Amino acid sequence: MTIITNHMPTAELQKLDAAHHMHPFSTQNELAAKGARVITSADGVWIQDSEGNKIIDGMAGLWCVNVGYGRDRLVQAAARQMAELPYYNTFFMTTHVPAIALSQKLAEVAPGDLNHVFYAGSGSEANDTNIRMVRTYWAEKGKPTKKIIISRKNAYHGSTLGGASLGGMGGMHAQGGLPIPDVYHIDQPNWWAEGGDMSPEEFGLERARQLEQAIHDLGEDNVAAFIAEPVQGAGGVIVPPETYWPEIKRICDKYEILLIADEVICGFGRTGNWFGSETVGWTPDIMTIAKGLSSGYQPIGGSIVNDEVASVIGACEFNHGYTYNAHPVAAAVALENINILQEEKVVEYVRDDIAPYLKQKWEALADHPMVGEAKIVGMMGSIALTPHKESRAKFAADAGSVGYICRERCFANNLIMRHVGDRMIISPPLVITRAEVDVLIERAVKSLDEGMARVK
Ligand code: PLP
Question: Record's SUPFAM superfamilies (predicted)?
Fold first, then answer.
């Protein structure tokens, strides 16, 4: 058997990869034909591939490497914990120090009385936990009919059966018989694509009021919770009109349903506050966390719940758990990651320095002939590509996916940007410098110009 190393020729690595490795959200045959890009190392906001290209990572991996790559403190935290206690579980009346310390720290940084953490290995698993937790909560309170969770179309909440069901991605629901029962989706607040003749303000209210209508239609006695990302990420960084969140909050305050903020992307500084729900002005009953919790250095997620939910769940045996709940190495790394965020004042840096700088540069992209709206909240931004800004027109189907074409140009120009249809998105590491933002924007403009030349 061949020993596989970073020093093998790229083509050989690609061939072996395609032969045995099935990739997520990919067409395996296309991957086999083209060959995957092989990433070999990373530092700060830069990743390097097997051809020696230095690429600026405008997506922080998958929206997760908040403190940037190459953090020796996180390496040391993992090594120390590996040596001391590489694994033990927290089932059956046991615990360990990394779980205790991380939970205390999360209770400190989370808003309001969100003081209790149920861990998972990922954001998807944590959302599965949430489904079972909110239904158990209502059953324990003597309201077992309250089972339905209202979510939004084009939301992303993960890839497990539960996570993908909560999510509103048509392509995911089309495979494997989803969604599971008792999940209901209202429309998303995407004014650019769906606002028609309404003003953004009218549209924001119309979309928020769909929640109230859904509660009426489904019956308040049957609705357990509403789940939302404070800013939809994988759906294309959809920033709702200003009227949207206050109206959602009014509705949630009026009805007896739990509010779940999926903070998997928005948490840990991405929007300029510790959590995205703080940025949009509401306090949830439950928060889903993952990604920035460990800056992606270890797989870990969880649900942070408030005192009320914890007290109700705490009174029963909650028959739910994962082998890797509060994995000690992952927990130790997550704790050290939060220490870095605090000690280096990364959230303050985002809020007061780098996000305002990026915003100014990002919003200027709206002057590009192919860019309609340019939206940004903290360190997550999107641009909508269009052949005609005034009418917010979409590209003709035979133009190919213009977003895909532009993403390929970004790759060629050593910039990682993602596309969702004809929306281009960024979510760079939070520690990116102003000079690196300039490089990112320069490469984005070049890629858009080249993309436009290929479309026309
Ligand atoms: N929730 C949101 C908002 C996400 O963006 C994601 C992943 O992108 C998830 C949940 C799922 O997290 P994971 O991929 O860790 O399972």
Answer: PLP-dependent transferases
How far apart CA 40 and CA 48 sit, in angstroms, is 6
How many whole angstroms from 167 Cα to the centroid of ligand 1?
A: 10
Q: Which atom of ligand 1 approaches the CA of 63 most closely?
A: 8
Q: Residue 196 and residue 187: Cα distance in Å, rounded? A: 14
Residues 160-178: pLDDT tens digits? 999 999 999 999 999 999 9
Report which of 250, 333, 350, 286 is spatially closest to residue 127, judged by C-alpha positions: 286
State the pTM of this model. 0.97
- Measured in angstroms, how far is the CA atom of residue 14 from the centroid of ligand 1? 27
Whether 124 is in the pocket of ligand 1, judged by its Cβ within 6 Å, is: yes
**Closest by alpha carbon to 258, among 224, 287, 288, 291?**
224
141, 220, 284, 354, 423 from 226: Cα distances, Å? 18, 12, 10, 32, 26
pLDDT at position 398 is 67
The answer to whether the beta carbons of residues 117 and 101 sit under 8 Å apart is no
Which ipTM value was assigned to this complex? 0.99
Phi, psi for 290 (deg, rounded to 5): -175, -145
